[in-house]
Design goal:
The complex is a heterodimer of chains A (74) and B (131).
Chain A: E1 5-7, H1 9-15, H2 20-27, H3 31-38, H4 46-56, H5 60-63, E2 64-66
Antiparallel strand pairs in A: 1-2
Helix pairs in contact in A: 2-3
Chain B: H1 4-26, H2 32-55, H3 66-96, H4 105-129
Helix pairs in contact in B: 1-2, 3-4
Chain lengths: 74, 131
């Protein structure tokens, strides 16, 4: 089932010119978890969401948002 | 340390075990434990190769990956339901029919246990890789 939390992880990763493997390595998760997050098949824990926000130096709410809040974006 | 060394190290370890087992079989001195250990060590090496192929260098995060603990919990749940339903089903069948094959509990119960483990493993792989 698709997640109800949307994110722009793929966009941010591509802007930094990173592979899923490199991002997984930086965040301490497997490449498949990055894939699942980007395809919205997995909602991260608060700790992982905060680690992602810190890595991209972006507020967490700019990366993750509830689907019904900003439909049609990204 | 580069995690690929783990793969290489385990590969050498598995090869040594397999060599020992093969030598034991050749000289007719192989104990069951050596064969079992060689099989287990080789299976783990194959699994490491597969996850390295799929996840690349991040395979080293497999044990600490938060998503995998969720996946593991779901797989255990499936296995639990299989055991719960099959044991109740078996009990009901025994009460109603008393079929001769159903009376061989010493085979049926280990089979159910093995089925539970297989369901756990297959569910884990399905949830992990079906994205």
């Amino acid at each position: 089932m698709a997640s109800k939390v949307n994110n722009k992880l793929r966009l941010l990763r591509r802007l930094r010119d990173l592979t899923q493997e490199e991002l997984g390595e930086a965040l301490g998760v497997t490449r498949h978890t990055i894939l699942a997050l980007e395809n919205r098949k997995y909602e991260p824990s608060i700790a992982l969401a905060l680690r992602i926000a810190k890595f991209f130096e972006t507020p967490v709410e700019d990366i993750f948002w509830l689907e019904e809040e900003r439909q049609g974006e990204v | 340390m580069d995690p690929r060394w783990l793969l290489i190290g385990w590969g050498v370890f598995a090869l040594a075990f397999d060599f020992m087992a093969a030598y034991g079989v050749y000289t007719d001195q192989a104990g069951k434990m050596v064969l079992l250990l060689a099989g287990a060590v080789s299976l783990l090496f194959i699994y490491l190769l597969v996850i390295y192929h799929v996840d690349g260098i991040t395979f080293k995060n497999t044990l600490v990956d938060e998503r995998l603990s969720t996946v593991s919990a779901k797989a255990q749940q499936n296995s639990f339901w299989f055991l719960f339903l099959s044991i109740w089903g078996l009990a009901i069948l025994l009460n109603i029919h008393r079929l001769a094959p159903l009376l061989h509990m010493e085979i049926l119960l280990p089979l159910l246990g093995t089925g539970g483990i297989l369901i756990q493993m297959l569910s884990f792989l399905w949830y992990k890789y079906h994205i």
